[in-house]
Amino acid sequence: MHPRQFFIPLAFGTLLAACSTGGLSTSKDSPFAPGIKKNAEAVDGLLVGHRLMEAGEFELALTHFTRAAGEQGLTVDVLSALGTANLGLGRLGQAEGLLRRAVKTDDVVPETWNNLGVLLMERGEFAEASKVFQRAYALDNGQSDSIRDNLRLALAKIDNSGYYEGVEEQDYKLVRRGSSDFLIRSIP
Questions:
Q1: What CATH number should be reported for the domain holding residue 133?
Q2: Which mean pLDDT values do the consecutive 10-residue runs of the chain (188 residues) have?
Q3: How far apart are CA 132 and CA 112, in angstroms?
């Protein structure tokens, strides 16, 4: 082989390597999503699901809550999350079963009682909803404005439904553990 025949491919290869952004690995400026880290730990399904609920992605949240149920079992947090996601999707029957199971546990939180009350309001069961909201408000020591507003709405519906015509157009507030509130529009 002649020395020039060896030199041309070597020079061309060196030129290409100089133009590359790092060989076979992707650069940090790449617009493409990073690859999968096989040794990394998975993010908690409840955390991801709650973030998806904040974004209004109830179906995706339900998928992550189901994954959390597989990993953690049907804890009160998982039952409440599954029920709330189903409520957000308008699946009242499924949501009611899950939320009622969650409130039967000893570790139940006020937010779960509130979300059950929202479900009962959606069904037009105002008397039971007001009792549920009262329990949520008592467990919360009156700290949540959303639960208080829901209780007021339920009591207004019971007391004099003819007098409070504008009440039907108000929002019910779903509450999750943390800093976010979810709203469900009342359907007349």
A1: 1.25.40.10
A2: 58 56 63 77 87 93 94 93 93 94 89 93 92 93 90 86 51 56 49
A3: 10
